[in-house]
């Protein structure tokens, strides 16, 4: 079995491949794979002509982020000890992959880890997706060191440490292949967004730790597949968050969380209407409608039996939205 495969999911990302794949090829020591989600642009031609060293797996349809990775990685099962899942819009740095894998080899109790993720357009600033390590508040809302809601911090070395976190970002995460397959990978019903947080939650419930490694840096463009402020992304985030919490919390805890989330998010829907943004209001309402439909066939996650105790949530914040909006706490250090 080989040590690691760097795996990039692509859908109509011809320009992303041209821009970002050169850095991956130049600075990586492990096999590079692209899973192509039935692109209709010139992605396959670009790979064949400009990057012959990159191996390619072709899907028959656009399966989304979750199922796209699941199907592609199934083809690589039992070939690699680790996968590094990397977005197609990430620029990497020298030694990045070896540093991640060497750390994982020395810490076998960890199932996944992410590097420091900085912004590609502004390399002195943290990126939205993962930043300096991801956490969950008591109501399942994600936040990061370096990014609270939509406020991004400058990188001044304040998060150059290595710590335990609640989740690793799907923009760049290394994961034990055995654990990924044991837990059936990402939830394909998510299609895209929140699927890595759900997977990491299931890992922690199965006794595995998640790490952030601030000594390794990558640069993420962000919004390359779906604009961060689009109604479609809002819909997926709200629906998938509800699904994730339902699967991983107890019945009574979910009811308490659902009551608070429903109130906050329906108030947000009303505000969107008031501001003339009905598409965003519809996204929230449709997310709740579709979650209720999906819940009928959704099962609670049951950890595989082993001798590992559940790893508790690392985030200590009760409701990050309240701290950010009402109390005016804009950075992680202020929480």
From TrEMBL:
Pfam family, one: Glycos_transf_2
Keyword match Iron: no
Keywords, alphabetical: Glycosyltransferase, Transferase
Domain of life, source organism: Bacteria
Ranges for domain Glycosyltransferase 2-like: 6-122
InterPro entries per the UniProt record, alphabetical: Glyco_trans_2-like, Nucleotide-diphossugar_trans
Family in the record: Belongs to the glycosyltransferase 2 family.
Protein name in the entry: Glycosyltransferase family 2 protein
